[in-house]
Each structure stands twice: as structure tokens, then as C-alpha cells.
């Protein structure tokens, strides 16, 4: 797990590695170390059940509106597993993508 801070010292982002964890859940959905397609199915089912929208990252990964995270995929040997980037965006969902330090995206 890696934490990134604003220059003011406030926590801005937390990146959780898919291989190393820790395991994190949101609304009962296990997020880390999953097969991305299975995680996407759970996210979609949650959005339908709770009548929320879905968001897709520029890389095509899915998450539910209001979760304030971006699901990512990473290699683990011959498998692809899910990782997550948590952020605080309030009502502006572009905050995460536009303001994250380069180190977040080049891991």
C-alpha cells in the first residue's frame, strides 16, 4: 500500500497493490486481488440494486458512483488481478485523474 499526500500534508490518494494488499472491501465488495471481470459484475450488480450509476476509467475499468476509487488491473504472474486507487474527490470525479501524481500511474 502506498499513500500520497498534498503539499499541505493532507492525505490525497491511497494505492493498494493487487498482489500485496491489504484486502479492502467497499459496501461488501472485495476489491483487491480479484479477477477484474468478476469484480466488474459485482460492481454492476451493486449499482443496479442500489440504483446508482457506474463510472468507467479512461482505461475501461468500472466502479460505482460514490465509491471514490478507481479499480485497476495488474499482472500477477500469468494472471491479471485487481488493484485500487482511493481518493477524495467530493462532487468532482475528475479530481482523481487530473491531480494524481505521476508515481500513481507508473507503478
Please characterize this protein's 3D structure.
With 107 residues, the protein is an alpha+beta fold. 22% of the residues lie in helices and 35% in strands. It contains three helices and eight strands; from the N terminus they run ββββαββββαα. The protein has helices at residues 36-49, 94-99, 102-105; strands spanning 2-5, 11-16, 25-26, 29-30, 54-56, 62-64, 69-76, 79-87. The strands form three sheets. The protein has a four-stranded antiparallel beta sheet with strand order 1-2-8-7, with no helix packed on it.
The gist of it:
The protein contains 3 helices and 8 strands; from the N terminus they run E-E-E-E-H-E-E-E-E-H-H. The chain has 107 residues and is an alpha+beta fold. A hairpin with a 5-residue loop joins strand 5 and strand 6.
List keywords for this structure.
alpha+beta; 8 strands; two-stranded antiparallel ribbon; 107 residues
Measured by DSSP, the beta-strand proportion falls in 25-35%
Termini Cα gap = 12 Å
Secondary structural class: alpha+beta
Q: Work out the helicity level.
A: 10-25%
Rg, alpha carbons:
13 Å
Sequence of secondary-structure elements: EEEEHEEEEHH
User: How many strands in all?
Assistant: 8
Number of helices: 3
Q: Given the C-alpha coordinates, what overall shape results?
A: globular
Mean pLDDT: 83
Given as residue ranges, the uncertain stretches (5+ residues, pLDDT < 50) are none
Strand order of the largest sheet: 1-2-8-7
Largest sheet, in brief, is: 4 strands, antiparallel
Amino acid at each position: 500500500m502506498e499513500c500520497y499526500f498534498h503539499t499541505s500534508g493532507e492525505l490525497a490518494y491511497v494505492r493498494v497493490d493487487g498482489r500485496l494488499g491489504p484486502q479492502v472491501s467497499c459496501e461488501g465488495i472485495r476489491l483487491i486481488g480479484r479477477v477484474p471481470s468478476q469484480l466488474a459484475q459485482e460492481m454492476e450488480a451493486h449499482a443496479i440494486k442500489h440504483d446508482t450509476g457506474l463510472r468507467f476509467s479512461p482505461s475501461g475499468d468500472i466502479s460505482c458512483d460514490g465509491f471514490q476509487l478507481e479499480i485497476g488491473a495488474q499482472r500477477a504472474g500469468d494472471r491479471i488481478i485487481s488493484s485500487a486507487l482511493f481518493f477524495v474527490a467530493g462532487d468532482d470525479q475528475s479530481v482523481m485523474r487530473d491531480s494524481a501524481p505521476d508515481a500513481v500511474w507508473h507503478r
